[in-house]
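#lab-general

N.A. 3:47 PM
ok so I finally got the sequence cleaned up, no stray characters, all 126 residues accounted for. can someone with queue access submit it? mine expired

B.Y. 3:52 PM
send it over

N.A. 3:53 PM
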Amino acid sequence: MKYAAATVLLSESGTRGHRGFFASFQATTIVGGLVLAQACLLALLLISDRVGISEWGWRVAFVAGGVAGLASQWWARGFKRGASGAGTASSAGASSAAVSSSPKPARSGQSSTMKALFRNTWRPIV
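B.Y. 4:20 PM
back already:
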């Protein structure tokens, strides 16, 4: 379920003509995560034995994942939001305070995206 939702979110976030490219990142990151996990296990096996990995070594992968997650959050703060570049992470606090609790009507000619869904009706989701 989450895999399909993440793929839809990625494809809806993509620009027209590039939505398949954006959706492909879901599968790519899964394979990349598996390769990184195997590389971590290989590195641990080179410096320790199986008993050591069972006792303490498994924590190394969790710490590395936590550090990578925090680093990616810090890195993503600099990206502009949306195709129009209307807001950046630095102005996210100001723009979130201006969001009303009632859904905004869709403008004619505007495409329906997951981004618009979350932006306009975020209270029931949370």
